[in-house]
Design a protein that fits this description.
Elements lengths: L1 H14 L10 E4 L2 H5 L1 H7 L2 E5 H9 L17 H17 L3 E4 L6 H10 L3 E3 L5 H10 L2 H11 L5 H15 L10
Length: about 180
């Protein structure tokens, strides 16, 4: 329906003599229901973008702005990571890009976890761009895919985080605050 509406508007503008280039239409994956049907959305979209802050909030029923429950907001929760994986896999299956925006992509350890899930496009805080870029560039996507796959067998977000953190500290210590080897 959105695509038809955009085409209608493009035709109206074209009749006025204005040439409008193709406008890519994407879909935000910000709620669990969108992640669960990401394969269907990907068939209609030119790209997908995972909005992690909202996705985490709705998947875990946790308002990160509420101090009484904010501690439960966990980007490494297995359910959250499975939803991210579903969206990435859906984009990969139809050959469209999937980007990731949210706090997790501004954290080098989060970016490595996302890389392991197949994310290759990150939107992060400007002050973190070079650190995340250098960290991801120094990492092997294949190796991180294997590491994250192993970590996903763990039962809690804390255990997944700690497993990924231990490997990151071992493989890329200078990127995560340590001194170069």
């Amino acid at each position: 329906a959105v695509r038809r509406f955009v085409e209608q508007v493009r035709d109206e503008v074209a009749r006025e003599g204005v040439i409008v280039p193709h406008v890519p239409l994407g879909c935000m994956i910000e709620v669990p229901s969108a992640a669960l049907v990401a394969d269907r959305l990907a068939r209609e979209a030119d790209f997908l973008s995972i909005g992690s802050n909202d996705l985490i909030q709705y998947a875990l029923a946790v308002d990160r702005g509420n101090s009484r429950v904010a501690y439960l907001h966990d980007p490494w929760h297995p359910a959250v990571l499975q939803l991210v994986r579903m969206a990435v896999d859906a984009g990969r299956q139809v050959g469209i890009p999937v980007s990731f925006c949210g706090e997790m992509s501004s954290d080098p350890l989060g970016a490595l976890t996302l890389l392991g899930l197949g994310v290759t496009r990150f939107s992060c805080t400007p002050s973190q761009i070079s650190m995340v870029r250098e960290t991801v560039a120094a990492a092997s996507a294949q190796r991180w895919s294997e590491l994250v796959e192993e970590a996903l067998s763990l039962p809690t977000g804390r255990e997944i985080h700690d497993s990924v953190d231990a490997e990151a500290s071992r493989l890329l210590p200078w990127r995560l605050g340590g001194a170069p080897a």
